[in-house]
Design goal:
The protein has about 220 residues and is an all-alpha fold. The chain has one domain (about 25-220). It has nine helices and no strands. Helix 3 packs antiparallel against helix 6.
Length: about 220
C-alpha cells in the first residue's frame, strides 16, 4: 500500500477549498442575523439629529466585531480539528488492526457508519500506518490565516448593505425599514443558495431562512427595537 507522503497531502489540501459553499453562506447569514438584532436594539435607545450616524456606526461596529470573532473561531476550529486528526493518526499507528479500524469509525460522521464496512476502513488504516510521521502538535498554515481573512471580509461586506440605509437616508424610521427589508432579501438569497447546495427546494429554503429573519425582527420590535 503506497504511503501518503507530504507531497500527496499538500496536493490534496490545495484541491480542497478553505471555505465551502455552506461555510460562506452560513457566515453571511450569521452576520445578517447579528446585525438585524443589534441594529434593532440600538434603534430603541437612539434619537436626535445624530441618530442616523449613530445607527451606521453601531451597524458597522457590530459587523466588524462579528467578523473578527468569526475569523478567530475559524482558526480555533481548524487547530482543534487538525489536533483531533493527528491524535487519530497516532492512535492508529500505536494500536492493532481492530482498535485502529474502531478509531477511524468513531471519527466518521454518524450518518456514514451504517454504510461503511470494516473492510472499507482497512485501506485507510494502512495508509495512516505506513504514512509519514505525525507532527507532535497541530499548527496553523498560511492558508488558514487567509481563510480567516476571507471569513472576516465575507461577514463585513455581506452585512454592509444593512448599514448603508443609515447613510443614504436621514429619517431613522425609514432607514430602519429599508435596512430590514434588505436583510430579509439577502437572507432569502442565502437560503436559496443553501437549499440548492443541499438538494432541497431553493424556494423553500429561502423562505424558511427569511421567515426566521422575520421572527427575529418581530422579537426585536416586541422588545422595543
Amino acid at each position: 500500500m503506497p504511503a501518503l507522503n507530504p507531497s500527496h497531502r499538500d496536493r490534496a489540501q490545495e484541491r480542497k477549498p478553505v471555505l465551502d459553499v455552506v461555510d460562506r453562506v452560513s457566515e453571511m447569514c450569521f452576520g445578517l442575523y447579528m446585525a438585524l438584532t443589534f441594529v434593532g436594539a440600538v434603534s430603541a435607545t437612539t434619537a436626535g439629529p445624530d441618530a442616523p450616524q449613530t445607527m451606521f456606526r453601531a451597524a458597522i461596529g457590530c459587523n466588524l466585531a462579528w467578523g473578527l470573532v468569526d475569523a478567530i473561531m475559524f482558526l480555533v476550529r481548524t487547530l482543534a480539528g487538525r489536533g483531533m486528526l493527528q491524535k487519530l493518526a497516532l492512535t492508529i499507528k500505536q494500536e492493532d488492526r481492530t482498535s485502529g479500524v474502531a478509531a477511524i469509525r468513531d471519527a466518521l460522521p454518524p450518518a456514514m457508519n451504517p454504510h461503511i464496512a470494516d473492510d472499507d476502513l482497512e485501506p485507510i488504516r494502512l495508509r495512516l500506518v505506513s504514512g509519514a510521521d505525525v507532527p507532535e502538535r497541530p499548527t496553523l498554515r498560511l492558508a488558514d490565516f487567509l481563510g480567516a481573512i476571507r471569513i472576516f471580509c465575507i461577514v463585513v461586506l455581506s452585512t454592509f448593505p444593512v448599514a448603508l440605509p443609515f447613510v443614504l437616508l436621514h429619517d431613522v424610521a425609514t432607514a430602519l425599514v429599508v435596512s430590514r427589508v434588505l436583510t430579509l432579501a439577502m437572507l432569502f438569497g442565502g437560503g436559496m443558495a443553501l437549499g440548492h447546495y443541499a438538494g432541497i427546494s431553493p424556494w423553500r429554503a429561502g423562505l424558511g431562512m427569511m421567515a426566521l429573519g422575520v421572527a427575529v425582527t418581530i422579537a426585536v420590535i416586541a422588545l422595543g427595537g
